[in-house]
Amino acid sequence: MRRVNINPTIALLIFFVVCDTLALYTAYLNHRNKFEAITLNSVVAPDFIWQAFDGSTHKLKDLSGHAVVLHFWAAWCPPCRDEFPKLLKAAADNPDVMFLTVSSDSAVDKPQEFVKMAAATSGIAAPSNVLYAWDPNKAITYDMFLTVSYPESIIMDAGLKMRRKYPLPIDWDKQDIRAYLKEMKESK
Questions:
Q1: Residues near 81 by beta carbon (within 8 Å), at least 6 away in sequence
Q2: pTM of the full structure
Q3: What is the CATH number of the domain that holds 62?
Q4: What is the rounded average pLDDT of the residues 56-73?
Q5: C-alpha 105: how far from its chain's center?
Q6: Which of 84, 85, 141, 169 is most exposed by smallest CB count within 10 Å?
């Protein structure tokens, strides 16, 4: 039997990454229905340019005048797979709210496949108010919005003021979420 030497620093790094991932997922499983939204101070979201899956670029400020759900996710994320079909249904039920979904996957084919799977699971083809952004360098996800776990959503009013942040999956069918989205689309 051949012995393989592993650099202790790399082994320790792998150990911590695995432990952190397991801890986050365990927290999600144990508390997914107990997490509350974090109320934000209604600061206007920083404007940024985002790239759609087709390579075209857009600006967040172009969505001004609409309530916006800024949703961070990744194709490899199990809680994202559970939540995304419900998000598509929420978007279909709220056509006046824009859902800007930001994938931080490194290759664009993974989120494209993910979106097709979510549409098939929900039975809802992507509504026109769902926009798909690709953030392979995590310039938006990590650098601007400090998102470190997925999924995460920030709900903004029509003036693009950040009102609530959900650090874990949202139950998009809950009455308080539906009421809050309605309140945001009516606010200016």
A1: 114, 117, 118
A2: 0.79
A3: 3.40.30.10
A4: 95
A5: 12
A6: 85
